[in-house]
Each structure stands twice: as C-alpha cells, then as structure tokens.
Design brief:
Shape: elongated
Structural class: alpha+beta
Distance between the termini: 22 Å
Helix content: 25-40%
Largest sheet: 12 strands, antiparallel
Radius of gyration: 22 Å
Order of helices and strands: HHHEHEEEEEEEEEEE
C-alpha cells in the first residue's frame, strides 16, 4: 500500500513542473510568436521534465512523508533553546555519554537518518542504543546499537534529546558501520557508509555492493536524527 501511495504521489508531484513550465511556455510563445519563443518553450519543458523525474525518483526512495518534511522543514526551530519544562533537552556530547553510562538517557533508540540519508527503509529498521561513548581528546562520539551497528561521529555539535527523537545538528564526519547478509549468502558481511562535510557539500563513500541506490545525503540536513 505504501509503495502504491508513493507511486501515485510521485507521479502527481513529478508532473507539476511540466504543468508550470507549460503555462509559462504559453505566455512566452504568446509574447514572442517566433522561432525564439519555440526554442525557449522547448528548453523550459526539457528542464521541467528533468526536475519532474528527479522529484519522482526521490519520492520513490524516501517516501512522500519524508519528502514533504524536507520541503517544509524549518531548520531555525532546532536552534531555539528548549524551555525549562520541555521534554526536549539540550546536551553536550560528553553529557550524552555520561547519562548513558548512568542509565539515565531519556531516548532509547529508533531508526537512523544521516544527513538526510536513511539507514534502510524510511521509519523502519529500528535499533536499540546499547552504549554511548565520547572521546574528548578526539572530539568523537560513538553510539553502539543492536544488530552489530555502530555510528562514529567526529565533532558533534548542538545535540537535542527527547523521549521520541535524538538529534545531532552538525558534525564534521559520520561513519556508519553495520552487518548485512546478502541474498543467497549464509554469512553476514561488514559494511560501512562514510559522510564527510567538505566545504559546502557532503562527500560519501561506501563498500555496499548489493544495490546501486544512491546515498541521499545533503548539506542542509541535520547530521543525525534517530526517530523512536
């Protein structure tokens, strides 16, 4: 059912740029009424078709809910200080690790999204947090999950924790390590995804060889979000 919804939503969202381009094309052609107007209309429609395809493919990968969440997100809200009676708490990396060691963490685990890129299907593949460590000399936070999954975060900044979500808004680099059993295999292999902030973009690296699906990481997204 979810795939059908995403398919229909992808088609509708994908044809929207074509409709808009068509309207502008008619206005341009009505004003120019020559070969230049026809050429401009053609270029506009080709550009709209390319944008429509990108939108359709994006919705098929992440789902319409997550796609719309990104479109209408307000990142500035994350920079607001939580109120005294708020369930959301601002943490330092050291504090987050210490609370975990004392078994006082208010967030226990969930599904992972790194710079906008999901680990597995969106809102699926929930993992339990087993341990959090912070090396102050390296400025490196390590979160160990169930299912032999681990995240290593270099220079994590602006951390927000609540019972339903853990957010790390910025990081210099994140490495995701996990185990996966490929189809037809009897043993699990070790795999990784690297996300490195380089100037104004995210550079990615992986040894995943069972799928050609692209890594949907973007510099404007929170470094790490874990949803309960």
């Amino acid at each position: 059912m979810k795939k059908l919804v995403n398919l229909i939503a992808g088609i509708l969202a994908g044809i929207t740029p074509l409709i808009i381009a068509g309207i502008f094309g008619l206005l341009i052609n009505n004003e120019l009424q020559n070969i230049l107007g026809i050429i401009l209309c053609g270029i506009l429609e080709l550009l709209a078709a390319w944008i429509g395809i990108q939108i359709f493919q994006k919705i098929q990968r992440v789902g319409i809910v997550d796609f719309m969440a990104v479109v209408f997100a307000s990142p500035d809200l994350d920079n607001l200080e939580p109120t005294a009676n708020s369930k959301t708490k601002k943490r330092t990396a050291k504090e987050l690790a210490e609370l975990n060691h004392k078994n006082q963490s208010i967030f226990r685990g969930g599904t992972l999204k790194i710079f906008g890129d999901w680990h597995g299907e969106p809102y699926q593949n929930a993992l339990k947090i087993l341990r959090i460590d912070y090396a102050e000399d390296k400025k490196q936070l390590v979160i160990q999950f169930s299912r032999n999954t681990r995240i290593i975060i270099d220079e994590p900044g602006h951390i927000l924790e609540s019972p339903s979500v853990l957010k790390i808004l910025s990081a210099k680099k994140i490495k995701l390590e996990f185990q996966h059993k490929k189809k037809g295999s009897t043993e699990e292999g070790s795999y990784f995804k690297n996300y490195t902030v380089v100037k104004n973009k995210i550079e990615t690296e992986t040894n995943i060889d069972w799928t050609k699906q692209k890594i949907d990481a973007a510099i404007g997204q929170d470094a790490l979000i874990i949803f309960n």
